Every structure is written in structure tokens, then in C-alpha cells.
């Protein structure tokens, strides 16, 4: 029993140490931009091992040098309640769960279910910054803890700034500046509303839409986001 108690104590101490490490890294991001994320390092490794080798585009730009059109487009597409929630929107998670259950029920061998998430921008950032891509209850619980930490230690503007500078927009394309240069040959500050809307719509599956820029869904969804952008509230 004593040996078991010691192992339990060691596991608890290790878990506490990991949480303190995560929180320390998040707190430092109030002043220091993250050099890379866990997701980016995983993608870099996969690209390096691919036949084409490592192709990488990323350039950090301050919040003020990212077009407000892109900020509004991303919020309208990914998280229209961003400025109001505390990192998690429970109602969105429940709606996503219900939609996914219906999609799985209608799925066939030829038409697999289209799974949708209910994650906020804060949750997406927490996952990409510090966590693996595995889908387990433990990982999801850790994501929620880190989302709350991000909301309490960083401003909404800083969270959005880090997100826009680190999110994937194609194979080896990370951040708003790289995406603007890659797709439109201009800076992130110069993006027009329609261009911003198309970039925002790409976010759930950027590699897919990078290969299919003429996708009818991409064009239709971009028009929808363009119409919603004026009502998106910036932090």
C-alpha cells in the first residue's frame, strides 16, 4: 500500500508540474511571441520526411499589421462569440455533438460522416500551442484547462494575435502574413474583405482548399462570411 501511495503521489506531482509548466509558458506569451507550436513542429517533421522536403512560410506580424477584414472574417467563421465567452462555449459543443451524431447516423461506406467541432478560437489555440493531436477525453480536458488559463493570463487581443500568427493556412503555410503572401502576393495588412473571407473559410481544412481553390463550397461559404463580417466584434 505504501508503494502504491508513493506512485500515486509521484503521478500527482508530475501532473502538477506539467500544469505549472504550461501556465508558465502561457504567462510568458503576454510579452514573448511563441517561436513555434506543438502542431507546427509536428507538421514540420512530416514535411521534412515527405518527398518534397521541408517547405515553410511563416512571419510574425503585430496585431495592428493584420487587416481588420481578416480578423472579422475569422471571428465570423470560427468564433462569433469570441469577445464574450471565457474560453469555452458549452452550447456550441453540445450543438456540435448533436450534429455529429446525426451525421454518423446518415453515413455510408461511400459517404463518411462530416465531423464538426465546437471549439472556440481559444480552445484551438490551446490545442495547437501545447498539446498533441490525439482525440481522447484526457486531452480534451487538458485543452479546457489551458483555454481558461489563456483567457485569464492573456488579453483577448493577444489571444487573437497569437492565433492569427500561428494557425495553418496550407502545407507549410502558417500565420496571416504567410497566407496573404502565398495566396494573394500582398501583406496581411492589405487584404481586401473578399480575400479575407476566403482565407477564413479555409481554416477548418486548409490543405484541402489549397489544392481546390475553385471549390464551389469555398466560394459560397466565403460569400456568407463576407455578409457576416460587419457584425463581427473585434477585441
TrEMBL record:
Location(s) in or outside the cell: Cell inner membrane
What Pfam families does this protein's entry cite?
Transgly
Keyword annotations of the record: Cell inner membrane, Cell membrane, Cell shape, Cell wall biogenesis/degradation, Glycosyltransferase, Membrane, Peptidoglycan synthesis, Transferase, Transmembrane, Transmembrane helix
Q: Which Gene3D superfamilies match?
A: Biosynthetic peptidoglycan transglycosylase-like
An MF annotation (GO) of this entry: peptidoglycan glycosyltransferase activity
Family, similarity comment:
Belongs to the glycosyltransferase 51 family.
**Protein name per the record:** Biosynthetic peptidoglycan transglycosylase
Origin organism of this chain? Paenacidovorax caeni
This protein's gene is called: mtgA
